[in-house]
Every structure is written in structure tokens, then in C-alpha cells.
């Protein structure tokens, strides 16, 4: 895993080398082992390397045999050995044993369609000097990030936004549409970022730059095609496909380990790893989390599976102290409290290993979120006219908050696109209008339903559970789950791999009928049944916690004064009514209502604004030790 940057000069002149070097310096944490830049005509490519495979080779940017095709690549290709064999048979010559060179030669054979052959996680840029074009691609699920921006005379791209902010003409200006929808989703949905003029290249897309013009194409999409087969077929097939995926994701020339939480996802990965080698596992818990702490359950699972386990407990003060650096590494606000947990567990793991496997994606692939049970519970409403459903929903809204049945009838009165916009829903449109100083209609901003509806349109032929999965795959998964996973692990120069988000795993799971995905009130039913003979029953059936953070408790006590001071000092009065936010904090502290997620979402934005817009808080990139040095001293990557 590495980091890339690049520039294309639309005037045809050479790239400003000093600008590319500054971009390059911003992502030093992504690759402490090696770095390189290459300038050729109107294009400049930059690269930072965390050495995983072919430790002595693999220097980038990397050319083909005659120097007419150059690549900078971030990620891992798990089928590179099969592709390499095919390319050798076709006469290609290789100078290294690494997966990067495979992509170069595959591009020579297939052009932009090379991306369709890749199995893995990736973001890469190829400069084809013969055809005078740049191709930039991102993997099928958005595991690896990729951003781009365009100015009057240049197009720039990179693994992190902070690099693009070094490009002349790129402003540190909040995108109002991103901010408006961030308050609902807790992240800026693809292809938006919180910066006006900076965009995400969506998952499963590639970009071609030619003649100073950008063209973006989708090369793959999710396709759910359920097959009428016995349940036993899917149970046996799931275990086999996961075992193969874990084995493929183990390929590395450096020490490996795994994150271990309380639930079935990470436990499955660890158990399958343990079949092949001794496993180092890592967990984090939080002071004040009480019975919700992952640590106790993880220790129990580690003991059963016989792993070499390490964990740590984070205090409220430690959590607060590291927040500014976290905001720096996130690039844009992601108000998921578990991002901090990921940072700490990654820091712990980075002392002992260079690669970790983790359970991200299992819920999206196998239907694991509790909310996916809702279509069945609300099925009775499908038999009622929509007008009657609306009436029942409107009547329920008048019931007192907390009254039994209120939420059930309110949600039953809505269509699926109205009631489900993804796994996080912080502020609704009406509440935003009470304190956000924006008029979406007057400003031409899309609201959250405008953002989610196109995904529902594309999933029109699917059942409701599958529609929800399809939406999460395109919004929640790349915008929250995978973004925080990449940024928090790379902040510690640690490569994270996600065996559940393997193209072959998805293509098998997509054949599982919806009634098997959620069965007898149990989510991820096929997955849980598939691992019954490799996991203890109490682990296979344990509900998901996912590194829970006691934000609700801390905002009432340990973090309350800090929150008040941050709200009071923040100069974003032009965006929101701060007194409204302050009252939400007070109501939370006094137990009037649970406003923890709402307040936290705004606090995260304020911290991000301090670092990236106001620049009143300065966080500098830290030059980490090489992986070799870190291993020898068993030391953390950076001081918090």
C-alpha cells in the first residue's frame, strides 16, 4: 500500500516540479520505505511506497520495457501472479516480482479495459506517452481513495486531498452542497468532497485525460442475480469462497496480523487465517464504555482461537488529544466516532505488523445490518394504499416522542427511498432548515433524496433488502467505512486488507436470495451458518458492536467543556446558528434528549474547519521511520 500524486499541464508545457514535490511531501506517512517522481512532457507522477511485496524491487513510478508507459500505483492486486503468467506467455518481459509491473503490461495488452481484469484494491495513474493520455482508475468497491481537481491550466490527482491543496488555484473553500448533505450522512457523499472544486473519483470508475479534457467512465457495477438453490449450497460455498479470499489476501513479504472485534466478521477472518499460520490480533476499547467495550469479548475469542493477542484501553483525554491529528489525516470531516478507534488500533498493530486483515464489507455483502430486517417488519403496509399509509404516518408524528408504535407507523407511512438513505441519518431536512444558514433551493443545492434516488432508480428491479444493500454499497461503504479505514491505517503506515470486499466473494454472495440473507430474524444468516463449524456458537451469533466509542457519555462529562469552548470559538456563524447547537449540547448534558450524534457531527466539522479552512490549528505531516526500523524498535509510528 502506498500513496500517489500526479499533475497534467493542459497548456502542454512541463509540470511545475516544485508543486509536485510539495504534493508528494504531504503523503509521506503513506509510504516511509521509498519514494519517487517522474516528469515527462506535460505529466508528472509521484509515489510513496510502503513495501509489501518484492521489498528490494518495486520502485515507482515504474515504466514498461521501452519507457512509453509509466505508472504510479497504490494498492494490491491479488490475481497478479495469474496475470503475470499470461503476460509472460504473450512475450512481455518483467524486471520485478511486484504486482505494479503487471498492470503496466496489462495496459499494453488491453488499454483502459485492463482494469476489468484486476482483482484487488487499487488507485493508479498511467501515462501513455504514445497516445498522449493519462488513465486514472479506482477499484470496484472504493477501498483505495482517489481525488482529483481541475484548474485553468492543470488537472491534478492524488490519494489524499491535502496533496491537491498544494496546487495553485485550488481554494480552501467549503462546498455548500457537501456541507448540507454531510449533516445528514455524516460524510460528504461521492463524488463530492467538503472542498469546492475537489472531487472523488467514484469506485469502479476510471478517468481518461486527453487533450486537456476529462472523461470519466464506469467499468463495473454491482449485479445481484439470486439463484434458486438449496440453502446448503450457499452455506458451503460461502465458507469455500471466503477461505480462498483470505488466502489470496495473505500474499506479502512482511509480517501480517488482523483486527479483532467482538462480532462474527473479524472473527471469521481470524479463524480462517489461523488455519494457515499463527495470527497476531489487535483490539481497542475505551474507558467508560462499560459493557459495550470490545476488549473483553475480543480477548475471549482470541483465547478460543489461540491468537497472539494485544489490546489497549483509551481514555477520554487520549481520545481528545489525538483528534486534531485525526482530522488532518481524514482530509474532510467524517463524523463516525469509530474512526478514532481505528486510529488507535492501527497504531497498536503498526508496532508489530505491516499488513492487517479486517472484516469491513461483510454487512454490505451478506446483508448484516439490523435495518435490513425492516422491509419484512413493515410488509403489512405494502397492502395499503399510499394515501392511507401517509395518513397513518402523519397521525403517528403527533404522538409523544418515545410512545410505543410511533416510529413504526411513521416509517410505514414512507416509501423505502424516503425512510432509508443509508446506515447513518443524523439531521433531517426540516431540522437542518432550523439552524443551517442556507437555502438549498435558492442556492441550487441537491438534498439528500436527490443524491440517493439515482441509486434506487438503478436498483429498481430488486427487492427492498437488495435495494438497501445497493445504496449502502455506493454511499455508506465508500463514504464512511472504507474512507476511515484507509485514512486511519495509512496515518500509521499500516496496510489494511478486506477479504469480504473481494470481487469473487461479492459475485458469489450476490446470488444468495434475500430470504436467505435475513432469515428467522437473523441477519447475515448464510455467513453465520457457514462459520458455525469454525467459530464457537456464542461468537457466530454475537451482535455487532464495531469498536464502540462512549461519545454519548463523554459529551455529558469529560468532553462537555471542550465541546462548549469549540462551539463558542468556531467562526462558522455564516453557516449555522451556533446558539442552536449550544442548546443541543445542553439538552444532551441535562438528559432532555440524546443529541450525541448530532452534536458530534457538528463538532467534527468545526475541528476540520479549524485545520483546513481557518488554518488556526497547524498539523504538519510527520516523517515516519521505515517499516524495518519500526519493527526493530517495536515502536509506534508517531507520537500522538
Largest sheet: 6 strands, antiparallel
The fold-level CATH name of the largest domain is Glutamine Phosphoribosylpyrophosphate, subunit 1, domain 1
CATH class of the largest domain: Alpha Beta
Report the sheet-strand fraction. 15-25%
What would you call the quaternary organization? single chain
Distance separating the two termini: 22 Å
Integer count of domains: 4
Mean of the pLDDT scores? 92
Helix content: 40-55%
Q: Low-confidence parts lasting 5 or more residues at pLDDT below 50? A: 635-640
Strand order of the largest sheet: 2-3-1-9-8-10
CATH architecture assignment of the largest domain: 4-Layer Sandwich
- Spatial extent as radius of gyration: 24 Å
Number of strands: 17
Summarize the structure in words.
This protein folds into four domains: about 220 residues, 4-Layer Sandwich (Glutamine Phosphoribosylpyrophosphate, subunit 1, domain 1), CATH 3.60.20.10; about 210 residues, Rossmann fold, CATH 3.40.50.620; about 90 residues, no CATH class; about 60 residues, no CATH class. It has a six-stranded antiparallel beta sheet. A six-stranded antiparallel beta sheet has the order 4-5-6-7-11-12, with helices on one face. The chain has a five-stranded parallel beta sheet with strand order 15-14-13-16-17, with helices on both faces. Helices cover about 40% and strands about 15% of the residues. The protein is built from 29 helices and 17 strands. A hairpin with a 2-residue loop joins β11 and β12.
